[in-house]
């Protein structure tokens, strides 16, 4: 990917944040040198991860997604939706608001919470949401490949309590679908997988959908 200009670059408390103007994909957000979204094709990803969203859904929880694009797309698909975005790094939200001209954070149907995803779900009432989107980074912050599976296990074990019985979850599995797929099969009765090609990512990525999430101790 050819960069024309570095628009913003800084090290937050959690990760390196960079926003570049590129020749092909417009303005792009990178976290720890991994692309998260681009101006030209983020809608491809957003549409895919929200593939199960319908008019009957009322309350969506987005874990991660500090760039605001998933929340923005969700409201365009379902204008009456209430969306809670839980983003660990407030510096990501600020950078996207300033340099990506992201104004969705001020929409009355959007609530932005700066918190750890697991901690937030631990403090949330049972059955509060009918859909959960896990839009976290390819490698969760503070984790390596060895414990990545444990992280997804924690996510699913907490999703069961915040998701109502008829709700669904969509998980961005990056380029390694096996980890998220294995965990999803342990916690959900109905699993679907979708391969999505987002040009700026440079390779296929995977979305795993699950319904009827159950608790497994």
TrEMBL record:
Q: Which PROSITE patterns match?
A: PABS_2
Q: Name one GO biological process term.
A: methylation
The answer, when asked if Methyltransferase is one of the entry's keywords, is yes
Q: Spell out the catalytic residues.
A: 135 (proton acceptor)
Recorded GO terms, molecular function?
methyltransferase activity
Q: Please give the family membership noted in the entry.
A: Belongs to the spermidine/spermine synthase family.
What is the official name of this protein in its record? Answer: Methyltransferase
